[in-house]
Amino acid sequence: MSLKIAVSKGRVYREFMKLLKTIGYEFNGEKDRKLIKTDTTESIDLIVVKSQDVPLYVENAYADIGIVGKDVIDEFQDVFYELTDLRIGECQLCIAGEADFTLENKKQLTIATKYPKQAQEYLVEKGLEGKVIKLNGSVELGPILGISDCILDIVETGRTLKENNLFVKDEYKAISSRIISNKIFYKTKFNLINEFIEKIEKEIR
Amino acid sequence: MGVSAYVVFRFFDNKGGLDMNYKEIKAINHIDEEFSSIMKQFGYSKVFPKSIEAVGDFEKFYERSKSKTLKVIGNNSEVNILHDDPTMSLFTSELSIEKVYYITKSFSWDTPDYEALKAGVEYLGQESIYADAEIIFSADQFLKSIGLDNFYIEIGHTHFIEKLLDLKALSKEDRDSLYTLIHSKNVVQISKILDKYNLTTMSKEFIKKLPKLFGDVDEILKYVKQMAQQNEKLQAIYDYLIQLINLLKIYGIKSKNLKIDLSLTNKYSYYDGVIFKTYSNDFGREVIRGGRYTINEQPFDVKGVGFGFDLKNLIGVMNMKKLNLNKNNFTILFNENSVQEMVEISSILREKGYKVNQMQGDLSKDTIDAIDSEYVLKILDDKIKIVDNLKNTVENEFLDQYIKGIKTETIVESIH
Question: CB-based contact (8 Å) between B292 and chain A?
């Protein structure tokens, strides 16, 4: 029986691939555009999907486990197990705004974001009244077009912010990629999942 | 109340119409029949929970109970609430009976059309292990009645972690974090928090072990016994679990179908005591979830035990396992020249207790597939074509012989 792993496209996929190689898994056609990749021993099937879809694949049992950032995980509640921190895909979830924007003395705030649940939690934690505007991409446009006061988004190198004249105003939380598991498969395929996680943990700890 | 639940549901339904196909409707009918039949056998009465009610004093309770709700402003500016858990409205009703069940549509944030079809059972008032065992056994019997026989019943107890984490040394913040991390089975983070404290090695090991403390009943209980010897707060829970498992075995539930998970918490529910769920090996979602609750805060004063399930989720399992989703036993295709024969055959079959669907015309294969009958009969002058969908065979017979045969049941005996 192979282990089905849904993994986020892009940087997380590349870093996870490196990790898999270090613990002995080999893939042919690693850089091709196939969306399902099987390792040479046929013990792992990688399903490469958009990060926001990883939890859905896991929750709905199309994958046994998933590799996805904490930013995406925290938009869901209690639909999968969050098993371990892989320490890859590290970045920050930040509040950013234009140069003259400040959080000081703010009582009300409008935040544009791909992460509405966490934006709402941010407002509550800071004791602010406010509004959250959900955007599916290009959230940087929020402050530029006056849709919002600021944005809540992940910041890796800061290049996109810089190119759009936006600045980090508050580092809300550190993000890294985690292994999540389908709640039932974690039990019915425990040996398969646990063995894989133990191999990974041995490598990263 | 100035707004009806129906209006609210339709407001959100951007597709319009009934979001179910023929097979789903048949399957829902089948589940409804079996569920009602089992629960009536256990002495339960059907009730009809409200899907909308005035917020009033309940607002804070709904927030605390983690029920996902939607507030609706009525015509007279009164605030009403739609909730995703039909049980809630049973708590607000003054029911004079203890044993109730329901099948109802309810509001849901988690479906594309903002509604779900839910069913559940509540045994209200009784605070006894016998009521707990009865509820778990009735869930087992219901699943068997719809043809599911290879499933696990997993049992936990919400007080187990509470007692284990009841350590003065832990800060409230860390205790809350541990509770969440145990719930999500995050062993690494649990260790990091515990490493900050000077707890006994035994306490640390017990807590670290919790996320993986699930599986075989005898094995887990053996370990819990060991834990209870070191931590007397756990003894009562151990005694309860031993007694409950014994009761379930008396009811006839096999050990191999029983599992224990002591990391189950009430973090996202109102359960307070035993908690259980059922699942099967190859379907990655739980089928039934239930447990005991005691809610003793204004305006509620309710205790009970129950379980609930989502009908569409259950149909998913049934489809995957290719279980009978309430097929018509027979569909008879007839034309204007064969009405008399159709009436004669359908009457004989119905008298014998079979379900018979009669349809006019010569239907395409796709339509016949959609009808989803075990047998499709097509009357052709003095002959009858018999499509046996169980064996995937097609036979032709003389009509009079066939009628004679079904009168003595030689033709249809194979389906039961």
Answer: no
